[in-house]
Amino acid sequence: MEAKPKYVWGPTLEHDKRGCRRWRVVVAGEGERGRTAKTFRSEVRALDAAEKLRREIDKGTTVSEAIALFELHQVRERGNRPSSASLVSGRLRRILGDGRRSIEGVTNKELCRWYEQRSGSGRFLKAKPQCSVATHHGELAAVRDFFGWCVKQGWLRASPADGIEKVGRANKGKLQLRGAEARALLAHAVRRAAEGDDGGLAVAVILSTGACAGELLQRRVRDVDDVGGRGLLLWIDEQLGATVKRPSRRRTLWVGEPVATVLRAHVKGRAPLAWLFPGGSSGGARGKTWLRKVTRRLCDEAEVQVVCPHGLRGTWASLGAAEGAARRDLQADLGHGDLRSQEAYVDATAAHEGTARRMLRLVVGGE
Question: What pLDDT was estimated at residue 301?
Answer without folding.
Answer: 95
